[in-house]
Amino acid sequence: MTTVAQPARVQGAVQARRKPISWSNLAVHLVLIGIGLACLIPMLLVVAVSFSDEQALVVEGYRLYPVGFTTHAYTYILKNPQQILGAYGVTALVTAVGTLVGLFICALLAYPLSRQDFKLRGVLSFYVFFTLLFHGGMVPFYILVTQYLGLKDNILALIAPYLVTAWYVLILRTSFAQLPTELLDAARIDGAGEWRIFFRIVLPLSKPVLATIGLFYVLRYWNDWFLALLFIDTPSLYPLQYLLQVLMRNMSVLASNPQTMGEPIPTQSARMAMAVLAFGPALFVFLMLQKYFVRGITIGGLKG
After folding, report:
1. Which domains does the chain have, with CATH numbers?
2. Which end of the chain is more exposed for a tag (fewer CB within 10 A), N or C?
3. Residue 102's pLDDT band (boundaries 50, 70, 90)?
4. Tell me: the pLDDT tens digits for 125-137?
5. What is d(CA 225, CA 244) in angstroms, rounded to the nearest whole number?
6. What is the C-alpha to C-alpha distance for residues 22 and 34, in angstroms, rounded to an integer?
7. Alpha helices in the chain (DSSP H)
8. CA torsion 141→147→152→154, rounded to 10°?
9. Residues 106 and 164 sit within 8 Å (Cβ to Cβ)
10. Distance between CA atoms of residues 221 and 156, nearest Å
11. Structure pTM?
12. φ, ψ at 139 (rounded to 5°)
């Protein structure tokens, strides 16, 4: 009887492990798949158009695959590679320095704001939050950077305005406040000072939220063109995004001039090729840091 009952028990256990289909979970997964495709398809379209022939695009329109495959758009943009490489260098320098310095300053500001025993915690928190609601305006901002700071046509003008962001400070403050106070108190009992606690305990335990804020900084600096439009006049200091905009304007002017001589200008495909050159490196950075992204947002989410 034991040998007969054993397979029945195994079969019953297997059936017990089988969970019924949850239609609600299935619906959620289908919605998420649809959202993912809605984000992925435009990127595929941009890449496909960048490798398409200009005349074929006029006849057949945009496709998710290259129409008349050609690299003419990239060849036309990279005709002067020193200019593009220089812009890449400026953007990489601005992104690296701005991200590291900005992340360090925001963390230094957020840590005392997370301390319950800090007397000026309420006042400084209100000051940081106030800047989220009100802005001095474009004219005072321009005067401050050019006249008082003297950063006109200076690479620091591309870095300094974004170093301290109130929203990032509030996220870091909430994350630091969730660290176990017993661990910090034990470090103080052992004789550790505030600087040592900050660098040896607080920052290592906050890697996910720091990586998330660092990703925000990278995307902000990498995609920025507005500061260059306001403060940069020297072409050698153009960041990548602003240089691509200048090239696009020049191409539009040449394409609209019927007296323009020479090879045809790939206006549409070149525009998409510029987009690929612009978002490509930032996409790889995001893929490397994505494992920290959701966890950092969850840890740093504002509560009460």
Report:
1. 19-70 (no CATH), 78-299 (1.10.3720.10)
2. C
3. very high
4. 888 888 888 877 8
5. 10
6. 18
7. 2-17, 23-50, 54-60, 72-77, 81-114, 121-133, 138-143, 166-177, 181-189, 194-197, 203-205, 207-222, 226-231, 240-256, 267-299
8. -100
9. yes
10. 12
11. 0.76
12. -65, -50
| Chain CA centroid to CA 13, Å | 48
Amino acid at 224: D
Please tell me the number of Cα atoms within 13 Å of 241 on its side-chain side: 20
- Alpha-carbon distance 11 to 143, whole Å? 78
Burial (CB < 10 A; 0-12, 13-18, 19+), residue 275, is middle
Q: Which residues of 193-232 are buried (b: 16+ CB within 10 A; e: fewer)?
A: eeeebbeebbbebbebbbbbbbbbbbbbbbbbbebbebbb
Residue of 64 and 144 predicted with greater confidence: 144
**Which residue's structure tokens are 């239609």?**
23
How many other C-beta atoms lie within 10 A of the C-beta of residue 135?
9
Rounded Cα gap, residues 100 and 18, in angstroms: 49
Cβ-Cβ contacts under 8 Å for 56 (sequence gap 6 or more): 67, 68
| Residues, the chain | 304
d(CA 283, CA 285): 5
What spatial distance separates the first Cα and last Cα of the chain, rounded to whole Å? 63
In angstroms, the CA 156 to CA 268 distance is 34
Does residue 200 contact residue 173 with C-beta atoms inside 8 Å?
no
The two three-digit tokens of residue 212, written as one number: 């998330």
pLDDT of residue 215: 85
Most confident of the following: 1-5, 26-30, 84-88, 229-233? 229-233
Place of tokens 């017993």: 182
Compute the Cα dihedral for 230, 231, 232, 237 and give only its sign.
negative
Q: Is the dihedral of CA 141, 142, 144, 145 positive or negative?
A: positive
